[in-house]
Amino acid sequence: MNASWEEFGWERLGHGVGRRRLPGWDATVALVAGADGVLLYDTGSTLREGAEVRAQAQALLGRRVTHIALSHPHFDHVLGTAAFCGTQVYGAVGMAGLLKLGADDLRASAVRHGVSEHDAAEAVDALVAPHHEVCGECTLDLGGGRQVVLVNVGPAHSSHDLAVLVPGSPAVVLCGDLVEESGEPQAGRDAVPSRWPAALDRLLALGGEDAVYVPGHGAVVDAAFVRHQRDQLAVLHDPEGIGGAPSGVS
Fold this sequence. Notes:
The protein is of the alpha/beta class. It has 7 helices and 12 strands. A hairpin with a 2-residue loop joins β8 and β9 (146-152). α4 runs antiparallel to α5 and α6 (196-207) packs antiparallel against α7. The longest helix is centred in the first third of the chain and has 15 residues, at 47-61.
């Protein structure tokens, strides 16, 4: 590495693994580095934000991002993707078509939540949909013994939720907005609350009791936190009963 994670405001989670909480919506982006490849989990809410993350990854690791995994199709997690030219992009099965057909809704959601008209239009016009769609699980080999497992665990928080397991001691589970620490779990029109508890059960089975769980918003949590949030969600089967954010944010 050419610099420390902390120098750029990133939190180191393990060897070659770190994340940053972006300003504005406190959305997490995470990096996982192997000997040959670098995975980025989520890309931010604008092309400017994506470009900043790209520059930081280059400075931190001395090489470019080679793979992107998108946690779900909300604007604050996907609109920076076009800043990473030549990168292989992964998402849950069906997400590519959703992003292509729902571009107008995505732009409107971004603007409604504070992104400028110009920035939202620029990002949506250049939007990169996933090249590879994950149904079940997909293992990526980043080299040097570093593998990551992409897991389609949705629908739950959204219609297309993708988590990432980074094996290690401890394991790291990148949860996207299936887990939120800085506020109550948010559910918009595309959420499926009745299936959300099962998605969290899947995360817990992936990581186990000793894993580090990284929410889409907020501080890193442990298995007990995820289990507590799972139990809270289990009693809420009404989509309007979980939080108040409209579809497209958080």
